[in-house]
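1st attempt posting a full record on here, be nice pls
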Amino acid sequence: MIEINFTLIIQIINFLALIFLLNIVLYKPILKVLEERDQRIDGQQQQAKKVVEEGQALMGDYNQKLYAAKVDAMNAKNAARSEASNEANLIIEKARKEAEDIISQMQQQMASEISQAKKELEPELGVMASTIAQQILGRKVA
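the predicted structure (as tokens):
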């Protein structure tokens, strides 16, 4: 059985003094270190979140710029292709016109040469006809 006497009061005083000393020497410093560590961890987590958000924003900007560059390149490519097609069409049209002009000139030249040949051969036509008739008939035609 427990007796209440002078030693019990001394043990209670010792216990309270021990709790007071442990609180000052051990518990408060440990709690302070743990709280500082928690604050550092929270700060680093917030900093990591900021870095991730900044990275995502940079990635978004990069993707937008990349898309814009692709669109610009595609537009430039299409413009160059269109310009080249227009130039090719102009060259083909010019060549076609030149060919038509050359054909027209050749036709006119041939017509004039035919006309000139007819004029040159017309006086000889009668002689040639009688010569051909003589050769076919085998006798002189009057």
